[in-house]
Known about the structure:
Layout: H1 14-21, E1 26-31, H2 38-51, E2 56-60, H3 61-65, H4 76-95, E3 99-103, H5 109-119, E4 123-129, H6 132-138, H7 143-148, E5 170-173, H8 177-190
Parallel strand pairs: 1-3, 1-4, 2-3, 4-5
Amino acid sequence: MSTNLTKHSFLVSRQQRESNNGHPGLVVWFTGLSGSGKSTIANELDVELNKRGLRTYILDGDNVRMGLNKDLGFSPESRKENIRRISEVAKLFADSGAIVMTAFISPYREDRDSARDVIGRDHVEVFVNTPIEECIKRDPKGLYKKAIAGEIKGFTGIDAPYEQPLSPEISLDNLSIEDSLAVLMGFLRTKCIIK
């Protein structure tokens, strides 16, 4: 790590950006098994917030791994680095005054706790708590079928662990997309993010 760095102060403050946007920056961190509905729910929330004119963006696991994190695999070490990078990027989005939704399995508690530490007060953890049996039944990418057949090693929920959050701000317990969206919008209203 380089020691010859100096943090640059910008002339436009976060408060000015948030004032221009009409809302504070926030990171809504979706975690859950593959096929639990993280990306689908994040997309629906994105649509709903955009209808209200809010500045949003989604950082999705597969999309990020096709670019920023294409050099990472799925070992515990690579997963840790994946989440570290995403945490830093999400923090920058929140600092810009945007609402960023991150949809990552993020299977390890320690990594999610590190993300919370990096992001700070802007972090909202959403556990998409869909039973693995339902995720296997959905199997939208055909990955469970391959993992069960032994074609994919280290697959979360099959032969790699998923450590459930102990105290997420929101737990979507096997809810429909519509009910999940209603819970999320209600939460954002109580936090004065939306009216």
